[in-house]
Amino acid sequence: MRITILGSGTSSGVPRIGNDWGDCDPAEPRNRRTRASAMIEHDGTRILIDTSPDMREQLLAADVDRVDAVIWTHDHADHCHGIDDLRQLYHAAGTPVRGYARPHTLAALDARFTYAFHGRAGYPPTIAAETLPNRLTIGGIEVRVTDQPHGNIHAAGLRFEAGGTSIGYATDFNIMTDDMTKLYEGLDVWVVDALRRRPHPTHMELPAVLGWVDRLRPGRTALIHMDHSMDYASLVAELPKGVEPGYDGLVLDA
After folding, report:
1. Per-residue pLDDT for 122 more than 90?
2. What is d(CA 47, CA 204) in angstroms, rounded to the nearest whole number?
3. pLDDT band at residue 138, thresholds of 50, 70 and 90?
């Protein structure tokens, strides 16, 4: 099983509009970050995590024209507003794309993108939506889910298991609950939100993430959802062994 980090940036991306690189070195390609998204693969099965506004470019870069399912973590714009580009996956497959989300997320997406789920004016629906349960199997991949506090909403925390290996994907949370701790124990790979070094009201800051890495002890950890204060080379120099800054296109094998 493997995970490809399609997008490693926060909601504004890096650089921000206006060529604002902040503390990030523009000469380092791994500092150029699109909005957060990822893809899980095992034995021919592909699961897309979120449909970021940059999804088209992300899937082109990854040379992907087919997925078996999409899981949305939550309905914030940087995680779902590329949903229209699922039309091309629909055309490639000839059938609607399977989509999963928690009930509150699915209701918000349905209201915002009704045409994608139900069709309109002669255009067929491009998504076959289902509620995301606490456990499900997609292809040969077992998926376990819990709800993560993210300010005043919740985002889905995800654990994928296949072939005796495990990958956790934890984006957009600011509190680590007991259920989350259980979900992310014993991982081979943990891909986790580390927005910046300073505290933030709805995201986990780097020092707190490193504390959880020390407690949970995943085999390998990659940081995502990083803003323009998180320079790649600076992070490489300061992070402990087994922890690395994620970047767009990084592939991690479990």
Report:
1. no
2. 25
3. very high
Query: What is the gyration radius of the CA atoms in the chain, in angstroms?
Result: 17
What predicted TM-score, i.e. pTM, was given to this entire model?
0.97
What number is the average pLDDT over the span 176-204?
97
Dihedral angle of Cα 88, 91, 97, 103, to the nearest 10 degrees: 60
Which has the closest alpha carbon to 75: 47, 51, 46, 45?
51
- Which residues lie closer than 8 Å to 212 by C-beta, 6 or more apart? 176, 184, 192, 204
pLDDT of residue 85: 97
